[in-house]
Specification:
CATH superfamily: STAS domain
Radius of gyration: 12 Å
Strand order of the largest sheet: 1-2-3-4-5
CATH topology: Transcription Regulator spoIIAA
Order of helices and strands: EEHEHEHE
Largest sheet: 5 strands, mixed
Number of helices: 3
Mean pLDDT: 94
Structural class: alpha/beta
CATH class: Alpha Beta
Distance between the termini: 22 Å
Strand content: 35-45%
Length: 101
């Protein structure tokens, strides 16, 4: 699992690679939370281009970061999910909470 965060002018993009499951979600969550609390971006986009697998841990990861960002005055978006991940996001109802592009 890889995570690279780039930030500019209040907007941040977190490039994720690999798999998001119960083993990898915790370190990703910790790093994203540290970044959100420290930098307080207006927008954080999770770029899922490099995600090859995601289970329900990924849904929890998205929901928790969305809540934290709202508390800090920001918002979360999910960008470029693979087609099957997009279906999982749609079935979970996450699109009612965060914008999926």
């Amino acid at each position: 699992m890889g995570l690279d965060i780039k930030s500019e002018n209040g907007t941040a993009i977190a490039l994720l690679t690999g798999e998001i499951d119960h083993h990898t979600a915790k370190p990703i969550r910790s790093e994203l939370d540290r970044f959100i609390i420290t930098m307080q971006p207006e927008l954080l986009a999770l770029d899922f281009t490099g995600i090859t697998f995601m289970d329900s841990s990924g849904i929890g990861l998205i929901m928790g970061r969305s809540k934290l960002l709202k508390e800090c005055g920001g918002r979360l978006e999910v960008h470029n999910p693979q087609p099957y991940i997009r279906r999982v996001l749609k079935l979970s109802g996450i699109e009612k909470i965060v914008k999926v592009r």
